[in-house]
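Appendix B, Record 12. Input sequence as logged:
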Amino acid sequence: DANGGSGAPGDQSGDAGSDVTVSSTVPTRDGYTFTGWNSVADGSGVDYPAGSTFTLPSSGSDTLYAQWQINTATLVYDANGGSGAPGDQSGDAGSDVTVSSTVPTRDGYTFTGWNTAADGSGTGYSGGDPFTLPSSGSDTLYAQWQINSVTLTYDAQGGVGEPGDQSGDAGSDVTVSSTVPTRDGYTFT
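Logged structural output:
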């Protein structure tokens, strides 16, 4: 009996009271690891590992039940060019964890949330959202960033005719204005 899983081996028959070898076929169950066979569904009976001997009953049939250990899965955070990503979160496979509210940082950028794809093409998540862990292994959430727009302003320092402000992406280059302000009695340097 696969006991919630699938892929149990076929039945084995023989003479009453004779011995058979427990099958080495491994059933599967999403989110769980197979740990062996037991004479009771809840695992409170006798354990029978693959290859062990099982004595058939004097009549009728006996059943061995698959035993399962739930997998541990992990949610990994990737700051995706930034720093200060929250620590990994682990739990039972298929269970929900709460997405961290920790906000990573990146010079010149504003954090906009988490996504299952580094380029933002996957599913988006915010801090506090539920996230369902995978059936095994780990999933990764990637920080998403919006580049900051910043401004270069000019101050005529007592003069007049300063150039207009210049805006652009943080960290990008702008060409300093060639506009020359004036101040009575002074030369612009």
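The chain has no helices and 14 strands.
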